[in-house]
Amino acid sequence: MADDTARFLADSPDRLALLDRLRDAPAAPSTLVRDLDPARRSIQRNLAAFEDRGWIERCSDGYRLTAAGDCVARTHADYLERLARIDEYAPLLTHLGPVHAPPPDLLAGDLVTASEADPQAPIHAYTERLREMDGNRVRVCSPVLSRAFHEAHAALALRGVDTELLLSTTTAQRARELNPLEFAAVLRAGPLDLFVRDDPVPFGLTLDEDSLLLGAYDDGHLQACLHATDPDLLAWGERLFEALRADARRVTSPGALDSA
């Protein structure tokens, strides 16, 4: 029955328009023809089909939605809104695994994506937003380390912001090999708690008390960066971070990294 309802609505945009119009207020067929501009015969045919399905009933003003019709109209409107939101955030979702993507209802915020004209746009957006964070603590997980990210996080450290950083063991070892003195100094003196996990970190996520930065990568390159402040999305991000950190271990010295 549900499949039949979906097909019935999808077969004709006029039916969707008619349902939406009747959500606003009851109306007579002549009013519906004037407002929607289809052929009168099409209006009459769809009204008859709606009546057969129990979606409308006659009233002094013409036709009005029943409770069933109103539920169908609202459900379909929500469905179209979700599809539109998914389409808007597709550049982010395309590069996230299904278990790491926000539910459609939570998709919100400013999205910056890479393009041929500006492949570094998401990186610039990330570092700019990161510098604007004004809390006392941030939690970060990342599949890569880059100089741009390092400099932005160093600026937070200079302000005394505590950072909890989660990397894969391989990424952390690579950072140590590239600059062993700096790596050791950061672990000794910086306001940084480093955690590593043996499995890869499949996305980028930065959280403070009030905002979230979610990064989607492809082959080590940041393709999209989402900045959001919605509390529900922030709570989702916190759960995602904690789930990823559940199998991680803290590293307090360069040597401990090899045994983590």
TrEMBL record:
Gene3D superfamilies: Winged helix-like DNA-binding domain superfamily/Winged helix DNA-binding domain. Residues 119-247 form the Methanogenesis regulatory protein FilR1 middle domain. Residues 4-87 form the HVO-A0261-like N-terminal domain. Signal peptide: none annotated. SUPFAM superfamilies: Winged helix' DNA-binding domain. Pfam families: FilR1_middle (PF08350), HVO_A0261_N (PF25213). This is Predicted transcriptional regulator, contains HTH domain. It comes from Halolamina pelagica. The lineage of its organism: Archaea, Methanobacteriati, Methanobacteriota, Stenosarchaea group, Halobacteria.
